[in-house]
Amino acid sequence: MRIIAAGAVVALHYSDYARSQPIGNFLLIHTQHFNLFVDLFFVISGYVIASQYLDSVDSARSVGHFVWRRLARIYPLHVATLLFYVVLALAIHFGMVRSDNPDRYPFTDLPAQLVLLHSLWGERLTFNFPSWSLSAEMFCYLAFPAIAALCLRRKEFALLLVVLPVAANCLWVLAARSEPWAEWINQGGAFRALPAFDLGVASYLFRDWISRWRIHPFALPASLIVFLALGSYLSVSVGLLAVYAIALLAIHFDCAGHSTPLTKLGLHRWSHLTYSCYMLHVPVATVVLTFGARHLPSWIPGGRLTLIPIAVLALMAASVLSYRFFETPLRQHLNRAFGRSGAGHPAVPPAAPTPALPVQEATH
Fold first, then answer.
1. Of 16, 49, 235, 282, which one has the fewest beta carbons inside 10 Å?
2. CA 78, 201, 173: angle at the middle one, nearest 5?
């Protein structure tokens, strides 16, 4: 589900580059709801984080270890892509390259970006803009020890932790007359993520009950296909509920150990590249679809549309290289450095076994 969600986000953003072509504009119009797949990341993240850390964040040392491991996973690539756009912004500033949207690189947003606060008070869609969800994830990670403490006392609190943020978000929308909270990115994206993350935690706590649901295996791919094809006709709030339902269906089949047609596609073999793909797809688009398009011969029809397959191939290669030679070695080095600092490694219980797909640490 994570790699499918990442692919959907890539499809949305790459369609935007080809909006000047009829087919590109058509795709853009009918993929706007794909931005809600980010909320699928949040649900899965809550579920997997709970499966691995729910009862092991009960001291200052264990919380520090948990937060460090999360930062070691997400922060290096965030900084690398941010640095890429800082260099680009400097090149634009000194007239070395031309940009159609120089306002996308405001240096005033750098402090929030660097400390992962740009989902709370960042400027909208700046630098490597998908990274707003990392800020939202970090907000959830920092809240997780308190969430875990409440849920371990009484697991019904997990349901309350889903309902209360939803109610608070809805009340804020009514009071401030803001956009629907399912569209919050900066200045609220963290509060958009929290209900989904808490839903994932609650799903883990109630996994035995969820696994007993009687649902046909085709329900998951069918609901996913219907959402992909018709989700653009839904309101954003209904679309968000649909994404939550898809996540719960996936969790059900995973907990029950039942295969679905999606499982048989073998996409889980690529799930470890989800984070790389998500974080690198916009920088790759900048190089291939923005700068590369400027050098296309005029006789090639379609413009940027013809470069999208090249961008996808470049993204696949960049994701593999980043994961193998940058993210993984640096994450391992940072985790070893934490151990050498004398903080130690608190015991982390193994993830609950899932016959269909092995649980992995959430990257998103």
1. 235
2. 75
For the CA atoms of 197, 203, 206, 212, the dihedral, rounded to the nearest 10 degrees, stands at: 170
pLDDT over 90 at 168, yes or no: yes
Angle subtended by helix axes 189-205 and 236-256, to nearest 10: 30
Q: How far apart are CA 192 and CA 51, in angstroms?
A: 22
Tokens 């889980």 correspond to 268
**Per residue in 123-136, pLDDT tens?**
888 999 999 999 99
- Predicted confidence (pLDDT) at residue 364 exceeds the cutoff of 50: no
pLDDT recorded at residue 97: 86
